[in-house]
Amino acid sequence: MKVTLLSILVTLISAVTMAQSSNEVKWAFSSKKIADKTYEVQMTATVNGGWHIYSQKVGVDGPIPTSFTFSKNPLVVLDGTVNEQGKVISKNEEVWGGVVKYYENKVVFVQKVKIKGGKTKLAGKVEYMVCNDEKCLPPAETEFSVAIGG
User: Fold this and answer.
1) 101-140 confidence digits (pLDDT tens)
2) Which of 23, 36, 49, 74 is most deeply buried (CB count within 10 A of its CB)?
């Protein structure tokens, strides 16, 4: 009985802390046609004041870099890797033992894709971690699905 109650308590605490991370970052997803059958999928993170989100290439081991995982879709071909658009901050952080790269306020991650047919979707998830000057929240994941084509 005690083990069951402890398991439930740990699960609830984990759920609450994961929810905190997602409260500090709001995601928006959109697509824009840039050429025939070629689109840019824009994944915009708006970060609450005082918090920051890490780059995909954070610079040191420790903080969780922002990463994207895309679901397989036979009608979509990824063209290159996800690019970052925003004001990157590079700062020596003693707690991490080196220079880290992160964004405050807003960053746009852009993935170029080519489609093989008409309307389809690019789906996946983003994993990220947010910190402020005092603490870091546990990594969080946000799933997304963006209409492209047509």
Assistant:
1) 999 999 999 999 999 988 999 999 999 999 999 999 999 9
2) 23
